[in-house]
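Retro notes, item 3 of 5
We never archived the inputs for the flavin-adenine dinucleotide complex last cycle. Fixing that now. Sequence and ligand:
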Amino acid sequence: MARYDAVVVGGGLLGCAVAWHLARAGTRVLVVEKDQLNRHASGQNAGSLHFQLEYRMVEHGDDAARLAARALPLHLDAMRAWAGLETDLGRPCGVAQRGGLMLAETPAQVAALDRKAALEREYGLDVEILEGERLRELAPYLADSVRAAALLPGEGKANPRLVTPAFAHAATAHGAEIRTGHRVTALHRDGGRWHLTGADGRLDTADTVVLAAGVWTTELAAMADVRLPAFPVGLTMSATARTAPLLPHLVQHVGRRLSMKQTGEGNILLGGGWPAKLVTRHGRVDLDHNPELRYESLTGNADAARVVPAVMGLPVIRSWTGMTTLTPDQLPLLGPIPRRPGLYAATGGSAFTLGPTYARLLAATLLGGQPDLSLDDYSPARFGALNFV
Ligand SMILES: Cc1cc2nc3c(=O)[nH]c(=O)nc-3n(C[C@H](O)[C@H](O)[C@H](O)COP(=O)(O)OP(=O)(O)OC[C@H]3O[C@@H](n4cnc5c(N)ncnc54)[C@H](O)[C@@H]3O)c2cc1C
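Structure as it came back at the time:
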Protein backbone atom coordinates (compact mmCIF):
# COMPACT_ATOMS: atom_id res chain seq x y z
CA MET A 1 0.00 0.00 0.00
CA ALA A 2 1.46 3.37 -1.06
CA ARG A 3 1.08 6.36 1.31
CA TYR A 4 0.65 9.96 0.15
CA ASP A 5 -0.19 13.27 1.76
CA ALA A 6 -2.75 13.84 -1.00
CA VAL A 7 -4.29 11.84 -3.83
CA VAL A 8 -6.00 13.78 -6.61
CA VAL A 9 -8.55 11.76 -8.59
CA GLY A 10 -8.70 13.06 -12.16
CA GLY A 11 -6.03 13.94 -14.67
CA GLY A 12 -7.81 16.85 -16.34
CA LEU A 13 -6.92 20.51 -15.99
CA LEU A 14 -8.24 20.76 -12.44
CA GLY A 15 -6.51 17.66 -11.11
CA CYS A 16 -3.15 18.49 -12.68
CA ALA A 17 -3.34 22.13 -11.60
CA VAL A 18 -4.20 21.23 -7.98
CA ALA A 19 -1.33 18.72 -7.99
CA TRP A 20 1.05 21.42 -9.24
CA HIS A 21 0.15 23.76 -6.38
CA LEU A 22 0.38 20.97 -3.80
CA ALA A 23 3.69 19.63 -5.10
CA ARG A 24 5.19 23.12 -5.15
CA ALA A 25 4.31 23.41 -1.48
CA GLY A 26 6.20 20.19 -0.72
CA THR A 27 3.17 17.89 -0.48
CA ARG A 28 3.65 14.25 -1.49
CA VAL A 29 0.93 14.04 -4.10
CA LEU A 30 -0.35 11.40 -6.52
CA VAL A 31 -2.69 12.07 -9.45
CA VAL A 32 -4.69 9.05 -10.59
CA GLU A 33 -6.35 9.08 -14.00
CA LYS A 34 -8.47 6.21 -15.35
CA ASP A 35 -7.62 6.94 -18.99
CA GLN A 36 -4.98 9.32 -20.34
CA LEU A 37 -4.26 12.82 -19.08
CA ASN A 38 -6.44 15.46 -20.75
CA ARG A 39 -8.55 12.75 -22.42
CA HIS A 40 -11.94 14.26 -21.48
CA ALA A 41 -13.45 17.75 -21.08
CA SER A 42 -10.12 19.49 -20.47
CA GLY A 43 -8.82 18.39 -23.85
CA GLN A 44 -12.10 18.54 -25.79
CA ASN A 45 -13.32 22.02 -24.95
CA ALA A 46 -13.53 25.21 -26.96
CA GLY A 47 -10.58 26.87 -25.25
CA SER A 48 -12.58 30.05 -24.62
CA LEU A 49 -11.35 32.29 -21.84
CA HIS A 50 -14.68 34.00 -21.19
CA PHE A 51 -14.86 36.24 -18.18
CA GLN A 52 -18.15 37.97 -19.00
CA LEU A 53 -21.29 36.17 -17.84
CA GLU A 54 -22.08 33.50 -20.42
CA TYR A 55 -25.36 33.14 -22.31
CA ARG A 56 -26.33 30.13 -20.14
CA MET A 57 -26.05 32.39 -17.08
CA VAL A 58 -28.26 35.19 -18.41
CA GLU A 59 -30.82 33.24 -20.47
CA HIS A 60 -32.93 32.32 -17.42
CA GLY A 61 -33.64 35.86 -16.27
CA ASP A 62 -32.21 38.43 -13.91
CA ASP A 63 -32.49 36.42 -10.69
CA ALA A 64 -30.61 33.46 -12.14
CA ALA A 65 -28.00 35.84 -13.61
CA ARG A 66 -27.55 37.53 -10.24
CA LEU A 67 -26.97 34.14 -8.61
CA ALA A 68 -24.51 33.02 -11.30
CA ALA A 69 -22.74 36.38 -10.95
CA ARG A 70 -21.49 35.27 -7.54
CA ALA A 71 -18.73 33.51 -9.47
CA LEU A 72 -17.49 36.82 -10.92
CA PRO A 73 -14.74 37.24 -8.29
CA LEU A 74 -13.34 33.98 -9.70
CA HIS A 75 -13.62 35.36 -13.26
CA LEU A 76 -11.59 38.44 -12.31
CA ASP A 77 -8.93 36.35 -10.63
CA ALA A 78 -8.75 33.93 -13.56
CA MET A 79 -8.33 36.77 -16.07
CA ARG A 80 -5.13 37.76 -14.26
CA ALA A 81 -4.02 34.15 -13.74
CA TRP A 82 -4.10 33.29 -17.47
CA ALA A 83 -2.00 36.36 -18.31
CA GLY A 84 0.92 34.92 -16.30
CA LEU A 85 0.28 31.21 -16.75
CA GLU A 86 2.77 30.40 -19.51
CA THR A 87 5.53 32.10 -17.49
CA ASP A 88 4.47 30.30 -14.32
CA LEU A 89 4.42 26.90 -16.02
CA GLY A 90 7.41 27.51 -18.30
CA ARG A 91 5.54 26.14 -21.34
CA PRO A 92 3.39 27.54 -24.16
CA CYS A 93 -0.34 27.12 -23.61
CA GLY A 94 -1.60 29.07 -26.62
CA VAL A 95 -2.88 31.87 -24.40
CA ALA A 96 -4.01 34.97 -26.29
CA GLN A 97 -6.10 37.61 -24.50
CA ARG A 98 -6.94 40.03 -27.28
CA GLY A 99 -10.43 40.80 -26.02
CA GLY A 100 -13.87 39.30 -26.23
CA LEU A 101 -17.11 40.65 -27.69
CA MET A 102 -20.58 39.59 -26.65
CA LEU A 103 -22.99 40.53 -29.40
CA ALA A 104 -26.57 41.81 -29.50
CA GLU A 105 -28.71 41.90 -32.67
CA THR A 106 -32.15 43.07 -31.45
CA PRO A 107 -33.29 45.90 -29.14
CA ALA A 108 -34.20 43.32 -26.48
CA GLN A 109 -30.72 41.84 -26.71
CA VAL A 110 -29.13 45.30 -26.43
CA ALA A 111 -31.15 45.83 -23.24
CA ALA A 112 -30.00 42.41 -21.95
CA LEU A 113 -26.41 43.38 -22.71
CA ASP A 114 -26.83 46.61 -20.71
CA ARG A 115 -28.30 44.76 -17.73
CA LYS A 116 -25.54 42.18 -17.87
CA ALA A 117 -22.83 44.84 -18.04
CA ALA A 118 -24.35 46.72 -15.08
CA LEU A 119 -24.27 43.52 -13.00
CA GLU A 120 -20.69 42.76 -14.03
CA ARG A 121 -19.54 46.29 -13.19
CA GLU A 122 -20.88 45.80 -9.65
CA TYR A 123 -18.19 43.13 -9.33
CA GLY A 124 -15.48 45.29 -10.91
CA LEU A 125 -15.45 43.77 -14.40
CA ASP A 126 -14.37 46.39 -16.93
CA VAL A 127 -17.04 45.80 -19.59
CA GLU A 128 -17.71 48.46 -22.24
CA ILE A 129 -20.70 48.57 -24.59
CA LEU A 130 -19.69 49.44 -28.16
CA GLU A 131 -22.04 50.51 -30.95
CA GLY A 132 -21.88 52.14 -34.38
CA GLU A 133 -18.54 53.20 -35.79
CA ARG A 134 -16.48 52.24 -32.74
CA LEU A 135 -17.75 48.70 -32.99
CA ARG A 136 -17.18 48.46 -36.78
CA GLU A 137 -13.65 49.86 -36.40
CA LEU A 138 -12.76 47.27 -33.79
CA ALA A 139 -14.55 44.38 -35.47
CA PRO A 140 -15.03 45.03 -39.20
CA TYR A 141 -15.77 41.33 -39.65
CA LEU A 142 -19.20 41.56 -37.96
CA ALA A 143 -22.48 41.29 -39.89
CA ASP A 144 -24.66 44.38 -40.29
CA SER A 145 -27.26 42.73 -38.07
CA VAL A 146 -25.05 43.25 -35.00
CA ARG A 147 -26.26 46.37 -33.16
CA ALA A 148 -23.98 46.40 -30.12
CA ALA A 149 -21.34 44.39 -28.33
CA ALA A 150 -19.94 44.20 -24.83
CA LEU A 151 -16.16 44.35 -24.95
CA LEU A 152 -13.96 42.86 -22.24
CA PRO A 153 -10.28 43.35 -23.15
CA GLY A 154 -8.93 40.44 -21.03
CA GLU A 155 -10.98 37.73 -22.77
CA GLY A 156 -9.49 35.36 -25.32
CA LYS A 157 -8.46 31.78 -25.79
CA ALA A 158 -5.96 29.09 -24.82
CA ASN A 159 -5.12 25.77 -26.42
CA PRO A 160 -6.83 22.88 -24.55
CA ARG A 161 -4.31 20.43 -25.96
CA LEU A 162 -1.44 22.27 -24.27
CA VAL A 163 -2.77 23.52 -20.94
CA THR A 164 -3.30 20.31 -18.94
CA PRO A 165 -0.02 18.73 -20.14
CA ALA A 166 1.76 21.95 -19.08
CA PHE A 167 0.26 21.71 -15.58
CA ALA A 168 1.12 18.00 -15.43
CA HIS A 169 4.69 18.66 -16.52
CA ALA A 170 5.12 21.40 -13.92
CA ALA A 171 3.58 19.19 -11.21
CA THR A 172 5.94 16.29 -11.91
CA ALA A 173 8.90 18.69 -12.01
CA HIS A 174 8.03 19.44 -8.37
CA GLY A 175 7.81 15.77 -7.47
CA ALA A 176 4.14 14.92 -8.08
CA GLU A 177 3.47 11.36 -9.23
CA ILE A 178 1.01 10.76 -12.04
CA ARG A 179 -0.52 7.34 -12.65
CA THR A 180 -2.65 6.93 -15.77
CA GLY A 181 -4.82 3.96 -16.72
CA HIS A 182 -5.78 3.65 -13.04
CA ARG A 183 -9.47 3.82 -12.17
CA VAL A 184 -10.46 4.38 -8.55
CA THR A 185 -13.33 2.03 -7.74
CA ALA A 186 -13.61 2.37 -3.95
CA LEU A 187 -12.94 5.13 -1.46
CA HIS A 188 -13.32 4.88 2.30
CA ARG A 189 -11.95 6.40 5.47
CA ASP A 190 -10.38 4.28 8.16
CA GLY A 191 -7.89 5.00 10.94
CA GLY A 192 -7.91 8.73 10.14
CA ARG A 193 -6.84 8.23 6.51
CA TRP A 194 -8.51 7.79 3.15
CA HIS A 195 -8.07 4.47 1.38
CA LEU A 196 -8.43 4.30 -2.40
CA THR A 197 -8.78 1.04 -4.28
CA GLY A 198 -8.00 0.80 -7.97
CA ALA A 199 -9.80 -1.40 -10.50
CA ASP A 200 -6.73 -3.69 -10.42
CA GLY A 201 -6.95 -3.97 -6.62
CA ARG A 202 -3.99 -1.65 -6.04
CA LEU A 203 -4.31 0.32 -2.77
CA ASP A 204 -3.24 3.86 -1.89
CA THR A 205 -3.82 5.85 1.28
CA ALA A 206 -3.75 9.58 1.87
CA ASP A 207 -4.58 12.20 4.47
CA THR A 208 -6.40 14.16 1.82
CA VAL A 209 -8.31 13.25 -1.34
CA VAL A 210 -9.32 15.75 -4.01
CA LEU A 211 -12.19 14.70 -6.28
CA ALA A 212 -11.41 16.49 -9.55
CA ALA A 213 -13.01 13.84 -11.71
CA GLY A 214 -15.17 16.00 -13.99
CA VAL A 215 -18.59 14.46 -14.66
CA TRP A 216 -17.51 11.39 -12.64
CA THR A 217 -17.05 13.46 -9.44
CA THR A 218 -20.55 12.52 -8.24
CA GLU A 219 -19.69 8.81 -8.68
CA LEU A 220 -16.53 9.24 -6.63
CA ALA A 221 -18.38 11.18 -3.93
CA ALA A 222 -20.99 8.41 -3.77
CA MET A 223 -18.17 5.96 -2.96
CA ALA A 224 -17.71 8.04 0.21
CA ASP A 225 -21.50 8.05 0.77
CA VAL A 226 -21.87 11.70 -0.25
CA ARG A 227 -24.42 13.08 -2.69
CA LEU A 228 -23.30 16.06 -4.76
CA PRO A 229 -25.84 17.69 -7.09
CA ALA A 230 -23.69 17.98 -10.21
CA PHE A 231 -25.03 16.95 -13.59
CA PRO A 232 -23.42 15.91 -16.87
CA VAL A 233 -24.20 18.05 -19.90
CA GLY A 234 -23.33 16.95 -23.44
CA LEU A 235 -21.81 19.67 -25.64
CA THR A 236 -20.93 20.01 -29.32
CA MET A 237 -17.96 21.65 -31.03
CA SER A 238 -17.05 22.16 -34.69
CA ALA A 239 -13.90 23.33 -36.43
CA THR A 240 -13.70 24.84 -39.91
CA ALA A 241 -10.85 24.50 -42.38
CA ARG A 242 -7.94 26.89 -41.87
CA THR A 243 -8.23 30.38 -43.20
CA ALA A 244 -6.20 33.60 -43.15
CA PRO A 245 -6.33 35.66 -39.92
CA LEU A 246 -9.90 36.90 -39.65
CA LEU A 247 -11.06 36.84 -36.06
CA PRO A 248 -8.71 38.27 -33.40
CA HIS A 249 -11.40 38.25 -30.68
CA LEU A 250 -13.43 35.71 -28.78
CA VAL A 251 -16.99 36.22 -30.04
CA GLN A 252 -20.10 35.30 -28.03
CA HIS A 253 -23.77 36.22 -28.24
CA VAL A 254 -26.07 37.49 -25.49
CA GLY A 255 -29.23 36.08 -27.09
CA ARG A 256 -28.19 32.66 -28.36
CA ARG A 257 -25.64 29.94 -27.93
CA LEU A 258 -22.41 30.91 -29.65
CA SER A 259 -18.69 31.01 -29.06
CA MET A 260 -16.33 31.61 -31.93
CA LYS A 261 -12.60 32.10 -32.15
CA GLN A 262 -9.72 31.46 -34.53
CA THR A 263 -6.96 29.08 -33.48
CA GLY A 264 -3.30 29.87 -33.96
CA GLU A 265 -3.35 27.51 -36.97
CA GLY A 266 -6.25 29.40 -38.59
CA ASN A 267 -9.25 27.13 -37.92
CA ILE A 268 -12.43 28.77 -36.64
CA LEU A 269 -13.82 26.93 -33.61
CA LEU A 270 -17.58 27.03 -33.20
CA GLY A 271 -19.32 26.17 -29.95
CA GLY A 272 -21.07 27.99 -27.15
CA GLY A 273 -23.25 25.38 -25.48
CA TRP A 274 -24.97 23.48 -28.28
CA PRO A 275 -26.20 20.24 -26.69
CA ALA A 276 -25.14 16.69 -27.51
CA LYS A 277 -27.25 13.70 -26.53
CA LEU A 278 -26.10 11.82 -23.43
CA VAL A 279 -26.07 8.08 -24.01
CA THR A 280 -28.05 5.91 -21.62
CA ARG A 281 -27.53 2.28 -20.71
CA HIS A 282 -29.95 0.26 -18.61
CA GLY A 283 -31.92 3.49 -18.12
CA ARG A 284 -29.01 5.50 -16.69
CA VAL A 285 -26.61 7.99 -18.24
CA ASP A 286 -23.48 6.18 -19.34
CA LEU A 287 -20.64 8.55 -18.49
CA ASP A 288 -18.11 6.29 -20.18
CA HIS A 289 -19.79 6.73 -23.55
CA ASN A 290 -19.20 9.91 -25.53
CA PRO A 291 -22.44 11.84 -26.15
CA GLU A 292 -24.02 11.59 -29.60
CA LEU A 293 -24.03 14.45 -32.11
CA ARG A 294 -27.41 16.15 -32.63
CA TYR A 295 -28.05 17.36 -36.15
CA GLU A 296 -30.00 20.36 -34.78
CA SER A 297 -26.96 21.45 -32.80
CA LEU A 298 -24.74 21.39 -35.88
CA THR A 299 -27.18 23.44 -37.96
CA GLY A 300 -28.06 25.76 -35.05
CA ASN A 301 -24.41 26.47 -34.33
CA ALA A 302 -23.71 27.15 -38.00
CA ASP A 303 -26.70 29.51 -38.14
CA ALA A 304 -25.52 31.41 -35.05
CA ALA A 305 -22.16 31.89 -36.77
CA ARG A 306 -23.74 34.11 -39.45
CA VAL A 307 -22.83 37.11 -37.25
CA VAL A 308 -19.40 36.73 -38.88
CA PRO A 309 -20.30 36.34 -42.59
CA ALA A 310 -16.77 35.36 -43.66
CA VAL A 311 -17.11 32.16 -41.63
CA MET A 312 -20.19 31.03 -43.55
CA GLY A 313 -18.19 30.03 -46.64
CA LEU A 314 -15.71 27.85 -44.75
CA PRO A 315 -16.11 24.07 -44.77
CA VAL A 316 -16.54 22.38 -41.40
CA ILE A 317 -13.86 19.71 -41.20
CA ARG A 318 -14.64 18.15 -37.82
CA SER A 319 -17.38 18.10 -35.18
CA TRP A 320 -17.07 16.42 -31.79
CA THR A 321 -18.84 16.10 -28.47
CA GLY A 322 -17.85 16.05 -24.84
CA MET A 323 -19.36 16.28 -21.38
CA THR A 324 -19.11 18.94 -18.75
CA THR A 325 -20.58 19.41 -15.27
CA LEU A 326 -23.22 21.88 -14.17
CA THR A 327 -24.77 22.47 -10.75
CA PRO A 328 -28.34 23.71 -10.08
CA ASP A 329 -27.17 27.27 -9.30
CA GLN A 330 -24.46 27.26 -12.02
CA LEU A 331 -21.80 27.94 -9.36
CA PRO A 332 -18.88 25.57 -8.89
CA LEU A 333 -18.61 22.89 -6.24
CA LEU A 334 -15.31 23.81 -4.70
CA GLY A 335 -13.96 23.07 -1.25
CA PRO A 336 -14.10 20.63 1.65
CA ILE A 337 -16.98 18.18 1.84
CA PRO A 338 -18.72 18.53 5.23
CA ARG A 339 -18.39 15.60 7.66
CA ARG A 340 -15.73 13.93 5.49
CA PRO A 341 -12.45 15.22 6.95
CA GLY A 342 -9.81 15.58 4.26
CA LEU A 343 -12.19 15.06 1.33
CA TYR A 344 -12.45 17.91 -1.20
CA ALA A 345 -14.42 18.45 -4.41
CA ALA A 346 -13.58 20.58 -7.44
CA THR A 347 -16.00 20.56 -10.33
CA GLY A 348 -18.75 22.50 -12.08
CA GLY A 349 -18.99 25.55 -14.29
CA SER A 350 -16.47 26.77 -16.82
CA ALA A 351 -13.57 24.95 -15.30
CA PHE A 352 -11.26 25.57 -18.25
CA THR A 353 -11.51 29.37 -17.96
CA LEU A 354 -11.70 29.26 -14.18
CA GLY A 355 -9.58 26.14 -13.62
CA PRO A 356 -6.31 27.87 -12.69
CA THR A 357 -8.20 29.90 -10.09
CA TYR A 358 -10.21 26.97 -8.70
CA ALA A 359 -6.98 25.00 -8.32
CA ARG A 360 -5.04 27.78 -6.60
CA LEU A 361 -7.81 28.50 -4.11
CA LEU A 362 -8.53 24.85 -3.39
CA ALA A 363 -4.84 24.10 -2.82
CA ALA A 364 -4.56 27.09 -0.44
CA THR A 365 -7.52 25.77 1.56
CA LEU A 366 -6.14 22.27 1.63
CA LEU A 367 -2.73 23.45 2.78
CA GLY A 368 -4.42 25.03 5.79
CA GLY A 369 -4.09 28.63 4.72
CA GLN A 370 -6.80 31.20 4.18
CA PRO A 371 -7.47 31.61 0.44
CA ASP A 372 -7.49 35.25 -0.66
CA LEU A 373 -11.01 34.79 -2.09
CA SER A 374 -13.76 33.23 -0.02
CA LEU A 375 -15.00 29.86 -1.26
CA ASP A 376 -18.19 30.07 0.84
CA ASP A 377 -20.52 30.64 -2.15
CA TYR A 378 -19.08 27.59 -3.91
CA SER A 379 -18.85 25.24 -0.95
CA PRO A 380 -20.36 21.73 -1.20
CA ALA A 381 -21.85 22.61 2.22
CA ARG A 382 -24.61 24.62 0.48
CA PHE A 383 -26.12 21.26 -0.50
CA GLY A 384 -25.67 19.82 2.98
CA ALA A 385 -29.41 19.06 3.18
CA LEU A 386 -28.84 16.20 0.72
CA ASN A 387 -26.54 14.40 3.13
CA PHE A 388 -27.84 13.17 6.50
CA VAL A 389 -24.57 11.64 7.75
C1 LIG B 1 -17.30 20.52 -25.78
C2 LIG B 1 -16.93 21.31 -24.56
C3 LIG B 1 -16.61 22.65 -24.69
C4 LIG B 1 -16.26 23.40 -23.57
N1 LIG B 1 -15.83 24.68 -23.72
C5 LIG B 1 -15.35 25.37 -22.66
C6 LIG B 1 -14.75 26.65 -22.83
O1 LIG B 1 -14.61 27.13 -23.93
N2 LIG B 1 -14.34 27.31 -21.72
C7 LIG B 1 -14.46 26.79 -20.45
O2 LIG B 1 -14.10 27.43 -19.48
N3 LIG B 1 -14.96 25.55 -20.28
C8 LIG B 1 -15.38 24.83 -21.34
N4 LIG B 1 -15.87 23.56 -21.17
C9 LIG B 1 -15.88 22.99 -19.81
C10 LIG B 1 -14.47 22.56 -19.41
O3 LIG B 1 -13.89 21.82 -20.44
C11 LIG B 1 -14.54 21.73 -18.13
O4 LIG B 1 -15.21 22.50 -17.12
C12 LIG B 1 -13.15 21.39 -17.61
O5 LIG B 1 -12.31 20.90 -18.61
C13 LIG B 1 -13.28 20.36 -16.50
O6 LIG B 1 -11.98 19.94 -16.12
P1 LIG B 1 -11.83 18.77 -15.08
O7 LIG B 1 -10.39 18.59 -14.86
O8 LIG B 1 -12.70 19.05 -13.91
O9 LIG B 1 -12.53 17.50 -15.78
P2 LIG B 1 -12.00 16.49 -16.90
O10 LIG B 1 -11.18 17.15 -17.93
O11 LIG B 1 -13.21 15.72 -17.36
O12 LIG B 1 -11.07 15.53 -16.09
C14 LIG B 1 -11.56 14.62 -15.13
C15 LIG B 1 -10.74 13.36 -15.25
O13 LIG B 1 -11.09 12.49 -14.17
C16 LIG B 1 -10.89 11.18 -14.65
N5 LIG B 1 -11.62 10.23 -13.79
C17 LIG B 1 -12.96 10.15 -13.65
N6 LIG B 1 -13.30 9.15 -12.81
C18 LIG B 1 -12.12 8.59 -12.40
C19 LIG B 1 -11.83 7.50 -11.54
N7 LIG B 1 -12.80 6.80 -10.92
N8 LIG B 1 -10.53 7.18 -11.35
C20 LIG B 1 -9.54 7.89 -11.97
N9 LIG B 1 -9.78 8.91 -12.81
C21 LIG B 1 -11.06 9.28 -13.02
C22 LIG B 1 -11.46 11.23 -16.06
O14 LIG B 1 -11.00 10.16 -16.87
C23 LIG B 1 -11.01 12.60 -16.53
O15 LIG B 1 -9.85 12.55 -17.32
C24 LIG B 1 -16.25 22.80 -22.28
C25 LIG B 1 -16.57 21.45 -22.15
C26 LIG B 1 -16.89 20.70 -23.27
C27 LIG B 1 -17.21 19.24 -23.11
